[in-house]
Amino acid sequence: MASEETDMKTAAERPATEQDMSVVANDGGTATGGNVAPAAAEDGRPAATPETVHPTALQMLKNSVSEDDPKPSPTLTLGKIIAGDILSNGIVRGQIWLFLLIVLFTIVYVAFRYQCQQDMIVIDKLETELKDAKYRALSSSSTLTERCRESHVLEILKNNRDSLLHVAEQPPYIIEVPER
Hints:
Blueprint: H1 2-13, H2 18-27, H3 57-64, H4 78-83, H5 89-94, H6 96-147, H7 150-160
């Protein structure tokens, strides 16, 4: 009982806020939601005036929650951006096409980057194959050059002995033909 009296005294001493007044106005003058204010409390105390009415937690929640976001103020500060006030429903709805365009560009960017990476992998693989082919060609060329040397050919001819070819014993000489 004593705690209720101290609550009433502190409520009477504090000034009414705009939220308290809106609760009173929305409720029709009572905190219980009735249409008529009681004339007196059961214990003989006078009825609470609109200034001393305490809204219930449900009423305060109903007043603070609304489906519409508050209109953004004309000044845009860093604090409002960090707090997330810039992402209210109105701003998001107004810029939906911009957000969709950004998402589309992001998807295209990622797809092109992926395709570019795949192409780079193929290019690296082909460059490796080209190097291998060049090394094989160089190796084949050196082997062919070694086998085509005169000394190697003569050695093979001596070992086979079934060929009629032999090394000339006379040095080559130039035949001059007179012109007419």
